[in-house]
Amino acid sequence: MRFNDTVLGLVLALLGGGVIWQAGGFPSRPGMSFGPALFPTLIGAGLAGSGLLLVARKLASGDRTPWYVVPEWGRSLYHVAGIPVIVGLILFYVYLSKPLGFTPTMFLVLFAGMLWFRARLPTALAAAAAGAVGIFVGFDLLLRVPLPVGPLELLLW
Q: 13 and 59 share a domain?
């Protein structure tokens, strides 16, 4: 899908406005000249300003391209069906990572995704195993991000 810069600019401006509005509800800290709302407000202002600049630039150029264009891959049922497959794999991870554990769930997600996108079986197996273990090592062991530990992982680690 290809959206015109005007559409993307409007989305960015609305997103930035939402961030600013949400940050306005953050409590202030007594004795400090700035509080926890400062950085989200700055980020929201940057998003909103960037979005408005995109819209202004597009309108000033007089470009009459359509707001939405279906790309070539959008005419292929296989490629369009990949979108709900990816969403399904994400939902699979969200709901099953706690009972199964991170590593087995991530292996299954990566393996199924690679098979869907036509990787060869040995390549998909090796890459899914390396990816699941590599992500686990990077996040859990190095960055100390707690990942779900399932019954299988108690045996592995």
A: yes
The pLDDT of residue 150 is above 90: no
pLDDT in tens, 86-119: 999 999 999 999 999 999 999 999 999 999 999 9
Single pTM value for the model: 0.61
Q: Which residue, of 33, 50, 69, is where some domain finishes?
A: 69
Question: CB 71: neighbour CB atoms within 10 A?
Answer: 10
Separation of alpha carbons 119 and 114, rounded Å? 5
Residues 6 and 42 reside in one and the same domain: yes
CA dist 128 and 133 (Å) reads 8
Structural domains in the chain (count): 2
**DSSP 3-state of 3:** strand
- Chain mean position to CA 28: 30
Contact between 11 and 4 under an 8 Å Cβ cutoff? The reply is no
